[in-house]
Specification:
Layout: E1 14-15, H1 20-23, E2 29-31, E3 60-61, E4 69-72, E5 83-86, E6 90-93, H2 104-123, E7 129-130, E8 138-148, E9 160-162, E10 179-191, E11 197-209, E12 216-218, H3 220-241
Parallel strand pairs: 5-7, 5-8, 6-8
Antiparallel strand pairs: 1-10, 2-11, 3-4, 4-11, 8-10, 9-12, 10-11
Helix pairs in contact: 2-3
Length: about 240
């Protein structure tokens, strides 16, 4: 279901995939280069991070996952961590954006939707508890959407995110035009007692859509990528705790 009245923000650029068959596979995501910001260079690349994480010196590229970098604190015993706490989301603006204002209600609506998706990914089977206070056994999730390019609000349908998008299309023999949506983000995970960083990741994903578009992008077209990130975080923690899926 579209998130009601999400207005006035661009999360990322709308781009084109080179393969119609892949694009038609609903919900599929692939690697994408993160939006470049004004922070430190990411290891082995010419991409600058947003600056949200502050220090990126210990992040390394993930083998087999182009466009993703992570840090895992050596020697961490993950097994006791069975609770998560989500700190408020941050939005880091594209330094090249011409319009940098984000309306508070838009910020809140997007954060609420992301929080719902992450909560569902972790707590749906009872393996983890989502809590409101830090403490023993708690991992604190601190995350940001990066490379966001806001746009002045206009009179648009309530389920639309008006985007200032880099829009390209490739027309195939079938007459369809395949598009994809890319979302960049950064996450750090902190120990609930010491506040020490135990994990961090920088990355971006693209989710596919083949519906013909103008410049109107709805939340449904971004939801798949958020769900991907949430499942990746859950899978990473399950692996560290030795939980078989």
């Amino acid at each position: 279901m579209p998130c009601n009245r999400i207005l006035g923000v661009v999360l990322t650029a709308l781009l084109v995939t080179g393969c119609a068959q892949i694009a038609q596979r609903e919900g599929m995501t692939e690697s994408e280069a993160p939006a470049s910001g004004s922070g430190q260079l990411l290891a082995g690349s010419k991409v600058r991070a947003s600056g949200f994480l502050g220090n990126y010196s210990k992040l390394q590229s993930i083998p087999g996952k182009p466009g993703e970098w992570e840090y895992v604190r050596p020697g961490t015993n993950w097994y006791p961590y069975d609770k998560i706490l989500m700190r408020p989301m941050e939005v880091w603006i594209n330094p090249k954006a011409e319009h940098v204002a984000i309306q508070p209600q838009t910020y809140t609506q997007i954060e609420d939707t992301i929080r719902q998706i992450v909560t569902q990914a972790f707590s749906s089977d009872g393996a983890y508890q989502v809590v409101n206070t830090p403490g023993p056994g708690v991992l604190v999730f601190h995350y940001a959407l990066t490379g966001v390019t806001p746009m002045r609000q206009g009179l648009v349908p309530s389920d639309v995110l008006p985007m200032k998008a880099a829009l390209t299309a490739v027309r195939y023999a079938t007459g369809t035009e395949a598009y994809y949506i890319a979302m960049s983000g950064e996450l750090e995970v902190l120990d609930g007692v010491s506040g020490e960083r135990v994990y961090a990741v920088v990355g971006a994903r693209r989710s596919f859509a083949t519906t013909l578009k103008g410049e109107e992008i709805t939340w449904d077209e971004l939801k798949d990528t958020v769900t991907y990130f949430a499942h990746q975080w859950r899978t990473r923690l399950d692996k560290g705790r030795g939980i078989a899926k």
